[in-house]
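lol forgot to send this yesterday, sorry. struct tokens for the thing we talked abt
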């Protein structure tokens, strides 16, 4: 009896989603701490990182998860 029936793509997509959400949570904590402590110079840097890097990465991750779900449903 095989208990690990998920495909490699599905496992990769779920791990990628986990680390992406942890990264977003870390950026949210940095944003709250910087605004709470009065270090306002880091806020534009965080917003630039969100717009330039994390938005395209999130879209690619969404496509990867969609592909994994479609392949799993066809199996």
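and heres what i got for the seq, position by position
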């Amino acid at each position: 009896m095989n208990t690990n029936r998920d495909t490699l793509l599905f496992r990769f997509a779920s791990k990628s989603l986990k680390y992406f959400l942890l990264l977003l949570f870390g950026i949210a904590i940095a944003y709250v701490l910087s605004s709470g402590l009065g270090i306002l110079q880091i806020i534009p840097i965080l917003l630039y990182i969100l717009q330039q890097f994390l938005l395209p990465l999130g879209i690619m991750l969404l496509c990867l998860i969609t592909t994994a779900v479609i392949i799993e449903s066809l199996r």
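The mean pLDDT is 87. anyway ping me if u want another try
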